[in-house]
Amino acid sequence: MNRINREILGAIAFLVTLIGAEIYFFYSFFTHGLLVIYGYSLFSLELLYSGVLTFLLIVTALSLLLILYGFKMRRRWTRKFAIFFILWAMLWPLWGIVVWKYIIEQIVLLIIYAILIIYLLSEYAKEYFSNIFRYGKYTLYKREVVLKSGKRLIIYFFSEHRPKSGIPTAMPEGYIVKINPRSNMPYLEKHYPDAYKYGKYTLYKKTVTLQSGKIVTIYFFSEHRPKSGVLTALPEGYIVKINPRSKMPYLKKKGILKRLNRREKFVHNIGSEKMETKDRKPSNVIYVVSKPQPGQVRGDWAVRSHGKIFSHHRTKLAAIKAARRIAKEREATVMVQNTDGTFSMGFKPRPKKQ
C-alpha cells in the first residue's frame, strides 16, 4: 500500500472511529452513564437540564460536521479543531472514572480518544492537511506510481477537474510552475536558484557513459529545456567562452586555457624572435677575413662588414690597419680571422669620456 492510500485510509479510519465513539458515548450516557448515575432519565429532566443537554447534542453534532467538512476539503484548521474537540470529549470519561462507575468502559473510551489525538499529531495527518496548491482554475494533485524497475515514484500534475486517481497536495519544495506553450497547461519544474545563465542561455549538465565504461559529467548551454539534463551552477574551475562559428557559449577549464595561452605566447615569442632576427640590424663589427667573397679576387685579405666589402689587401697587416681606421670612424670593433677559421679581437674602440 502506497503512502497516498495510507493517508486516505487513515483519515477515513479516524472519522469512523470518532463518530462511532461519540455515538456510543451518548448511548451509554442516556442508558447507564452519568445521566442515570445521578438519578435522571431522558423523559424526567427539568426544562433547564433539557435545554443544556440539547445544546450539548447540537454542539457535538455541529462539531462532527465541521470535522467531516474539514477532512473532505483538507482545511488546515481541522487538525487543531479536532484535537480541541477530542480533549473536550475526554472530560466525560474522566468524570465517569471519578465517580467510579463503569471504569473499564471509560478507560477504553480514553484510550480511543488518545489514539485519535496521536493520529492527528502524526506525519500522515500533517501530510493530509498540507496546503493545497492552486494555479488559476487548476489544482495540484499527486499520486504514487510503480515503475517497471519496481521503484516507487510520486508524480505531480495539475487538473481542472477531480481526477480518477491522485489527491490534492501542496506545492513541493524546490519546484516552480511553468506553462506548456502547446497546451497552455501548468506543470512543475525543478527549480535551481543557483542555475547559471549566460544571456538567454541556461547551463545544464548530464552524466554520460563512454564506450570505455567511464562515466563523465558534461556541461552544455541551451536556450530551451533539453530532453535530458538538469539545471546547474557554474562549476568551479571553468569559464565561459563563445564559439566563433555558432556564437553559442560553452565551458572551458581554466587549466586548459592557461596551457593554450602559454602555447600561444610561446608561438608568438618564436614569431617575434624570427621577426627580430630578420629585421635585426647588423652588429657594429668590422671583419678582416683571409678570403674575399666569391668572384672577388683582388687580394688575399679583405676588410668587410655585414653585407659590404670595404677594401682588399695582399697582406694581413695592411688589412688590419685599414680595418682599424674604418672602425675608429664608425666606433666599431675589429675582428681578425685566424688560420683555424676562428676570430680574435683586433681592435675595440675606447668609450667616450662624458
Describe the model.
The protein has 354 residues and is of the alpha+beta class. The chain folds into 4 domains: 125 residues; 57 residues, no CATH class; 59 residues, no CATH class; 63 residues, no CATH class. Helices cover 42% and strands 25% of the residues. Strand 5 and strand 6 form a beta hairpin. Helix 1 packs antiparallel against helix 3 and helix 4 runs antiparallel to helix 5.
Keywords:
354 residues, alpha+beta, 4 domains, 5-stranded mixed sheet, 4-stranded antiparallel sheet, 8 helices, 17 strands, 42% helix, rod-shaped
Please state the CA-atom Rg, rounded to the nearest Å. 50 Å
Low-confidence stretches: 277-281
Kindly name the structural category: alpha+beta
Shape: rod-shaped
Helix content: 40-55%
Count of DSSP E strands? Answer: 17
Query: What's the overall average pLDDT, rounded?
Result: 81
